[in-house]
Every structure is written in structure tokens, then in C-alpha cells.
Amino acid sequence: MRILGIETSCDETGVAIYDEDRGLIANQLYTQIALHADYGGVVPELASRDHIRKTAPLIQAALREAGLTAADIDGIAYTCGPGLVGALLVGSTIARALAYAWNVPAVGIHHMEGHLLAPMLEENAPHFPFIALLVSGGHTQLVRVDGVGQYRVLGESIDDAAGEAFDKTAKLLGLDYPGGAALSRLAQQGQPNRFTFPRPMTDRPGLDFSFSGLKTFAANTIHQAIEQEGELSEQTKADIAHAFQQAVVDTLAIKCRRALQESGLKRLVIAGGVSANQQLRRTLAELMTQLKGEVFYPQPQFCTDNGAMIAYTGFLRLKQGEHSPLEIEVKPRWPMTELSAISS
């Protein structure tokens, strides 16, 4: 079985082909960073229009990369939600049209389930059950995973996601878009302990997150530094970035430790765009060494939005006979707990 996967939930156009016997055999990705850089963030209408321009050429490129034709494709998987409604409609419409024309089944995939299962693309894939930390620009969740579609949300952000807080703080520091990655690079030059940020919601029971207060704390810290220095020096910016990043990483690690201890599980999966953050990876690796457990990540290329995770997740669901109706439906908001479980 060969599945074509299409990802268009936000500002990345991803197309990939997953082969049941050979694994991932094509992976094409186009990023819209340059398109949105002048605006300091994603402009939904521009994102949708660019997906229209790029999706079909990327599908053709993926087929060429795999040495296949349309006749070799057995099914199509596409991101159905959550995400930007216009962007989702582009990918869904193209996927449904191709499935009809090629006479193959199609299935709508949950974007965050794709992220959650991305580590399964690695040779050293985790076994169920495990705790997953899904951390991106739009989501921060701790999920107990007992199988594909067997998800129980243990905690989530009650306001800003971690990646969103990174981006907003980077903007306060005057960093270029995309801000989260720029802030992480700047933080490497920061001096520890010059600034101390709070670790929100770690002094109370539970596994929920809150990062909007950290953004406010960063804004106040920046204003105070400007009052003292006039214009912020690059070193002060780096020191603030370091303190902010450490606060986010420590908060995520504290909640992961709590989730693992409460569940009794020894496997942790981290996925989503922020999972590429090297400080987070080091901290969670140290945590799992202390807990005598294992931590799993996708490759960096599969941390951000990509078609490979959609193709793989679509393969699992299509192989079980699941498919979506011909009508085009997208779900900009879609709780992962609504997904159906599939047998292993």
C-alpha cells in the first residue's frame, strides 16, 4: 500500500509518499517563511493562496522522487484539522479531487495526531503506552497514548501555547520572523542567572500549562531594562532570551516529570515544532536518565509541519479500512480525543 500525504494546515506545504514495505519514499516541503516575514506572522489569506500555487507541483515532485505515477497510489491522506480554515480547505479540496479522479480512498487526518506519530517514522520507534508532550506554535498538551487513536489528554495550555509564547517574546525583543527559532539561537549567547523568570503553574497540582504570563513578564523585563540602559544591548537581549527559554523548558520538564510519575510510565515522546529546541531536548534527556526511562523525538525535519507524518498516519488509518466521505469538511478546532481507535 502506498499513501500520498498532503499537509496544508498553516504556512508549510508538505507532500509525501509512504510505502508499506519501503517506508517513506518521497518527502517534499515548501515553507512560506519569506512570504510572511514582512508581516511578522502568518497572514491566513496569503497562506491559502500560496498553498493553491504550491500543492500540485509538490505532488508531481513527490511522484517523480518516488519513481511512481498516479496509478501506483493506493490512497490519499490529508490534514483535515486543526488549523487555518482556508489553508485546510485547499489541501482537502485537492486531496478529495485527486481521490475521486484516481478512484482511491481518502482520509482526513488530525494534524496533532500526525505530530504525535511522527517518531514512528524512526528506526527506534517507541512502543505503546507512553506519555506524549505535543508542543508547537498552536498547541501544548500532555497526552497518555495507549495506541493509535487511544488518547487521553492529561493537561494542556489554558492560554498561549509554548511556541506562541516564544514567537511573541521574540517579537518583543525585535527579532526577525520566525521568532521562536531566532530566540533560541540568541539564548545560546545569554548569561545564566542575570534574569529570573517564573515557572508558571508548577507550584500547584495538575498538568495544565499557562505561558501568557511569561510573555507579560518578558515585556516588563524588557521595559525595565530599557529604562536602565536606554537602548537594549545585544547581550541584554540574549540574557532575556536565555532566561525566558529556560523558564519554558523547566516548566515543560516539571510537568513531564509529574505526568510520568503519576502514570507510572517510563517512555516519553516529544513532538511538534518546539520539540526541535535543543535546550528542551537536553533537559528532557537528563530527566529520563534520572527516571531511568526513554525519550523519543522525530528527526528535526519531521518536527515542523510536514507531509510525511500525514502520509504515515493516513497509512495506518486507511489500512484499517477507515476513509472520509466525499463531502469536503475541515475542522479548524478538533479535539484529539474525538478520534477513533484502531487495532494494532
From TrEMBL:
Write the record's keywords in alphabetical order, separated by commas: Acyltransferase, Cytoplasm, Iron, Metal-binding, Transferase, tRNA processing
Major localization listed first in the record, in broad terms: cytoplasm
E.C. number: 2.3.1.234
Q: Offer one Pfam family short name for this entry.
A: TsaD
Q: Does the keyword Iron apply?
A: yes
Where along the chain is substrate bound?
L134, V135, S136, G137, G138, D167, G180, N277
Q: Where Fe cation is bound, by residue?
A: H111, H115, D305
Identify which cofactors the protein needs according to its UniProt entry: Fe(2+)
Q: Where is the Gcp-like domain?
A: 24-312
Tell me what reaction this enzyme catalyses: L-threonylcarbamoyladenylate + adenosine(37) in tRNA = N(6)-L-threonylcarbamoyladenosine(37) in tRNA + AMP + H(+)
Could you give the cofactor binding note from the entry? Binds 1 Fe(2+) ion per subunit.
PROSITE patterns according to UniProt:
GLYCOPROTEASE
Q: Which GO terms describe its cellular component?
A: cytoplasm
Single Gene Ontology MF annotation: tRNA N(6)-L-threonylcarbamoyladenine synthase activity
Where is this protein found? Cytoplasm
**GO terms classed as biological process:** tRNA threonylcarbamoyladenosine modification
Q: Does the keyword Oxidoreductase apply?
A: no
Role summary: Required for the formation of a threonylcarbamoyl group on adenosine at position 37 (t(6)A37) in tRNAs that read codons beginning with adenine. Is involved in the transfer of the threonylcarbamoyl moiety of threonylcarbamoyl-AMP (TC-AMP) to the N6 group of A37, together with TsaE and TsaB. TsaD likely plays a direct catalytic role in this reaction.
Similarity annotation: Belongs to the KAE1 / TsaD family.
Record-given protein name: tRNA N6-adenosine threonylcarbamoyltransferase
Source species? Caviibacterium pharyngocola
Lineage runs: Bacteria, Pseudomonadati, Pseudomonadota, Gammaproteobacteria, Pasteurellales
